[in-house]
Design a protein that fits this description.
By secondary structure, this protein is mainly beta. The chain has strands at 7-9, 21-23, 28-35, 41-47, 63-69, 77-81, 99-103, 109-115, 123-129, 141-142, 164-167, 173-177, 182-187, 190-194.
């Protein structure tokens, strides 16, 4: 079968026109890109090859992968799953994607991603990295209660799917997700919930 390919396009005039492009590895979808304070780009990617392909990473499909660029997206390297140790195994389960990254002022990265399976336990999760995305915390933080669905939930505090975040001046991260019924706020020393989200005392 012909592999599906996603492309990164670049603009040099503030987004008015788009020209040069770079292909990501095959079978990459739903990519979001974060520009770190260092200038490096990190892409959060839903990697999903066909399961019957004879390629090394086929069994790791439908998971959150990352890739780095140090030349403004012209080339991408270190294509890898979310993991706890350098060169370690993937630390995300089947269906733990789509994902997005945020950076706070001390350089800590926060990855938010879906947990899709089992469907009746679907949830929005968060992990943190203190080394620019090379390794990720073993702790997993639930930003919504388990039991949302892939399309969200009308129940207060539930919901998951295609979250988007913004970092505020005080390093709080506001995340919208799912059916729009939940707002989660992450501040420097913990996660605090609104709209029924779970609260955490330390991150």
């Amino acid at each position: 079968s012909v592999p599906a390919t996603s492309h990164i396009f670049r603009s040099t005039d503030g987004g008015r026109t788009w020209g040069a492009w770079t292909a990501l590895p095959d079978w990459c979808f739903e990519t979001t890109i974060l520009c770190l304070r260092s200038g490096k780009l990190i892409a959060a990617i839903r990697y999903q090859p066909l399961v019957d392909l004879d390629i090394p990473l086929a069994k790791l499909g439908k998971r959150l992968f990352l890739a780095d660029s140090v030349d403004q997206g012209r080339t991408w390297s270190d294509f890898r799953p979310l993991r706890r140790t350098p060169h370690g195994p993937a630390d995300v389960a089947l269906g733990e994607c789509h994902g997005e990254l945020s950076e706070v002022s001390d350089g800590t990265l926060v990855a938010t991603h879906d947990r899709r399976y089992p469907r009746d336990r679907a949830q929005l999760l968060a992990r943190i990295s203190r080394d620019q995305g090379q390794t990720w915390s073993p702790e997993v933080y639930g930003l919504t209660l388990p039991g949302g669905t892939a399309t969200g939930s009308s129940r207060r505090g539930y919901g998951t799917g295609y979250a988007s975040s913004i970092v505020l001046e005080d390093d709080a991260i506001v995340t919208m997700t799912g059916a729009g019924t939940c707002v989660c706020i992450w501040a420097g020393k913990g996660l605090k919930g609104r709209g029924g989200a779970v609260s955490y005392t330390h991150l």
